[in-house]
Amino acid sequence: MRRWLALLVAATTSLVLIALLVPLALLVRALAESGAVTQATAEAQSVAAVVGTADAAGLTLTAERTSAAGGHAITVFLPDGQVVGARAARSPAVELAARGQSLTAETPSGLEVLVAVQGLPAGTAVVRAFLGEDDLRRGVREVWLGMLVLGLTLIGVGIGVADRLALALTRPMSEMARVSHRLAAGDLTARTTPGGPPEVRDVGLALDHLAGRISDLLAEERESAADLSHRLRTPLTGLRLEAESLSDPEEAARLGTRVDALERAVTSVIQDVRRRSREQASCDAARVVAERVAFWSVLAEDQGRAAEVAVPPGPLEVAVSAAELSACVDALLGNVFAHTPEGAAFSVRLAPEPGGALLVVADHGPGFRPLGGSGHPLERGRSGAGSTGLGLDIARRTAEASGGSLTLDAAPGGGARVVLRLGAPADSGALR
After folding, report:
1. Alpha carbon separation from 291 to 295, 330, 346 (Å, rounded)
2. What pLDDT is stored for residue 418 in this prediction?
3. Domain 2-138 has CATH 3.30.450.20
4. What residue range is the signal peptide (predicted)?
């Protein structure tokens, strides 16, 4: 917008200056010509005053002095045909002036100022002052150059002022764009700084109000989820009592273990939604991935699967909670074990990248099977292998919640590869 406003002001200023300076330039040229003619006429009249009183030698001396002083060639055509002063041909205009009429005539090379001197015994003499193009345009080029410099200076000043005004307009708009991007990335604390014209300030205040309303709605949603999780404690307590009342100790212990696991999951949900309502979640991806790979390595060893693992020592902060990342890694590795034959190798690679981390899970299985009709393996509830299709959706939502993305492609040696990009927390020192 700044560039367009500058171009608009430059075009407008140029049109105004052209409309003003072109007539002024023509007027300067006309005034220069008029001044030169007036000066030449005065010089010719001063020589004409001595035509009847001086002899040829004196008249020649007067013409040469006047010509040297004024810079114009002075020629005197006497009635007897004698020519005194600067050499010049007797033109038709001179013949007309010899009839007693003073005049100014144009020639191919300049302008003739002719003064008729009557009353001489032999007839009428003519004093000729010649003006060349340089005489008629003397000083005009300098004035035109000054006007051009003045016009360019005014255009530059106009563009500078327009740029400052445009900056006062575009700076708050750019800030609002940055705030909207931060909101889209999940930073609901982003707010604008009021500034600029009243209309732009109104837009900024409306954006702040929208961000506050979104924060309130998300807080209400998370509290509702937490309240719902709390309500599950009552049936869990009933299940625990039912399990403890069983006569078979082994069955009671088994059900009690399941109830404990369910209660821990409900507690995790409560803590997670309330933590999200207070601050952005983050965790050390290196530690979480290493823990989950170690957990699945036991099953991989039982099935004879070769596992290639490359995890940096860390810490490698990402903008997801440890529970969410654990569920994501479990979903991806669970797909590997569920949809590839026993003995199929797999690899897990975690590496830092600008703005977060890159997690790649690949296997040597059959790869992603095409879905019948429309659909995609990332579409929730769709699967080409008879599963629920929720595992990849969990991984996708985890990546997008951190500001990253998930892509699927074929592994170099055959099989499937899932590339998960995880964003870094907003206050981390990750490269951006």
Report:
1. 6, 11, 17
2. 92
3. yes
4. none
